[in-house]
Amino acid sequence: MTDTLRTPRDPATGGLDAAALLDAYRTMRTIRVFEERLHDEFATGDIPGFVHLYAGEEASAAGVCGWLDDERDVIASTHRGHGHCIAKHVDVKAMMAEIYGRVTGSCHGKGGSMHIADLSRGMLGANGIVGGGPPLVCGAALASKVRGDGGVAVAFFGDGGANQGTTLESLNLATVWHLPAVFIAENNGYAEATAAEWSVGGGSVAARAAAFGMPGTTVDGFDYFAVREAAGEAIERARTGGGPSLVEVRLTRYYGHFEGDQQTYRTTEVQRARAELDCLLRFRTRVTAAGDLTAAQLDAVDAEVATLIEEAVTEAKAAPLPTAADLDTDVYVTY
Ligand SMILES: Cc1ncc(C[n+]2csc(CCOP(=O)(O)OP(=O)(O)O)c2C)c(N)n1
Ligand SMILES: [Mg+2]
């Protein structure tokens, strides 16, 4: 039960081979470009509903989900869910179409940004209810435990979500039921405009783990390798019957709480984070300095991702909207 800032065991590149490193970079880069493009597209007025961007936080989704498989492991996400979806292999074009409200979307255009879900990838859903994910994860983890399939369920939530009763009840239940669950608190310093420094009693989400009898740790969320190591320990513990863990990932969101947020509550922190801490830049520096990947290999991923996102937007805009006849479908699950 520690609350120390972790550094990776292997100071270079986490012991990953070139293919795994490229995969991790591709995930983070896809999230970044997806979000930056959405930032631009939202400003045109073509996207319905609310959009909360995850840019800046990529190392968390990639560092955690890199340990999970699509069949037996599940995640529950938040209102800021695009990064989690991409890292859990939800189809990027279907996500874009969903955000545009098109029938080709992950949920046939009926969910939008905050309700993207894909059970075939173990993605239980983004969630408009702050603190809504942790109880779902307790249920999913219990199901895995009963089935004995070795599956792990992971809940992502924010510093604001960490103060919700549902999250604290879930931490308790996960311990009492000794569940294969992992709780990832993404502390980006704010819940809407409210500073975590003010609203998180005790100052540390990770320290709360001790009250529920589970390990808690805090990790630098700009460092992909540090997140990967901390999450790997927690996921391994869950998978091998060791019960739940809590990992607090400290990071910064690059855009406002929602698209349109004037951000009057902060000044230079984003500029500093982008220039000095950025997870993609740090990853690039680390892997090229270690000689594990070349700049050309990373540039090739950048080009591949740029094409994917361009196609995703073009195809989403060209896809049809749901019709009135679609209103009655997908409302209830039929067994
Ligand atoms: C139960 C509930 N209460 C309040 C809200 C309004 N709300 C939406 S996002 C948000 C802040 C969440 O902050 P945090 O959990 O830190 O996530 P972040 O936005 O920083 O990723 C609030 C209060 C909500 N959606 N659901
Ligand atoms: Mg927050």
Number of domains: 1
Bound molecules: thiamine diphosphate, magnesium ion
User: Uncertain segments of ≥5 residues (pLDDT<50)?
Assistant: 1-11
| Gyration radius, in Å | 19 Å
The largest sheet is:
6 strands, parallel
Class computed from helices, strands and strand pairing: alpha/beta
Please, could you describe this protein's structure?
By secondary structure, this protein is of the alpha/beta class. The protein has a single domain, classed as Thiamin diphosphate (ThDP)-binding fold, Pyr/PP domains (Rossmann fold, 3-Layer(aba) Sandwich), CATH 3.40.50.970. The protein contains eleven helices and eight strands. The chain has a six-stranded parallel beta sheet with strand order 1-7-8-4-3-2, with helices on both faces. Strands 5-6 form a two-stranded antiparallel ribbon. α4 (92-99) packs across α11. The structure holds thiamine diphosphate and magnesium ion (MG). Thiamine diphosphate binds at residues 78-80, 128-131, 157-161, 188, 190-192, 257.
